[in-house]
Amino acid sequence: MKTTLLTRRVFTSAAALAAACVAAPALRAQPKLEKTKLAIAVGGKAAFYYLPLTISEQLGYFKAEGLDVEISDFAGGAKALQALVGGSADVVSGAYEHTINMQSKNQHIQSIVLMGRAPQIAMGISTKAMPNYKSLADLKGKKIGVSAPGSSTNMVANLVLSRAGIKAADVSYVGVGTAAGALAALRSGQIDAMSNTDPVMTMLEQKGDVKIVSDTRTLKGTLEVFGGPMPAACFYVQADFVKANPNTCQALANAIVHGLKWLQTAGPSDIIKTVPESYLLGDRALYLASFNKVREAIALDGVMPEEGTRTALKALASFEPSIKADKIELGKTYTNEFARRAKERFKA
């Protein structure tokens, strides 16, 4: 009788332990985060360029990974980069090419998860300021609006102009942001042309305010401008941060890839319900038209394509004399370690 009771007790305890193990796989699977409170800098959060960041934030995917994020929105990517270099931000949601640019200045930053597989930047000429525009050569001496000087919108403009023999010093770049201020700057005649993201460019295009002369909002357009795949928005951090905070980097990648997975099946109405009302710039129909235009430019799984990093280096070196292609170690500008794990977890 005693033996039977003891056996039953042992069996019950073992069963309870097994049930506890089954019930708490997540507790064992989630390693302790080195840093839970993070400051994220972004330049123009309302742009579709950064939609995966907004989706992951609005749907609580950062919280689900144990992260408490504070997102600061700057006028452009160059300002967000300054926040990282200055120490007021831990992470930047910004253009991949900054990792190459900074390495040329002996400062090492690294992409940990990709959000965009095309720059989503279009360049347009103001139909009001330049009604007789014939070719890019006409832009010499003109004012060109960009999100912020030194940002990816500026980089695309430099690349497009350089192919027409126009140097950066031959034009004046004006920072106009990526939202209502950009629309106002072009419509009021403060600038003659603009290189910017959606939804701004689609809104100007559909109202007849600009004539598009270069377009990287689609994969086909990106191939025409850059000659290959061109990675765009990513999360980048200081290289030392990756070494010191691998679990935190994994949590960040998880949150973004979770958002990318959601975006693959989200319908236009889902997007409208999820993003803040102010992002729509007062025109839902145009916002949705813009989304449909850039949808394919959003990354699918967070993994950085090696070929894309080579395209970015070639593009930057073509107009930026300080970047010597043979001196840049592309392998140090990104890691796919975290994105690959997140891709497997979310089946992205």
Automatic annotation (TrEMBL):
GO terms for cellular component: periplasmic space. Residues 1-18 form the signal peptide. InterPro entries: Solute-binding_3/MltF_N, SsuA/THI5, TAT_signal. It comes from the Bacteria. The keyword NAD does not apply. Its main location: periplasm. One of its GO terms (biological process) is alkanesulfonate transmembrane transport. Residues 37-278 form the Solute-binding protein family 3/N-terminal domain. It is found in: Periplasm. SMART domains: PBPb. The keyword Transit peptide does not apply. Keywords: Signal. Pfam families: NMT1. PANTHER family: ALIPHATIC SULFONATES-BINDING PROTEIN-RELATED, TAURINE-BINDING PERIPLASMIC PROTEIN. Belongs to the bacterial solute-binding protein SsuA/TauA family. This is PhnD/SsuA/transferrin family substrate-binding protein. It comes from Caenimonas koreensis DSM 17982.
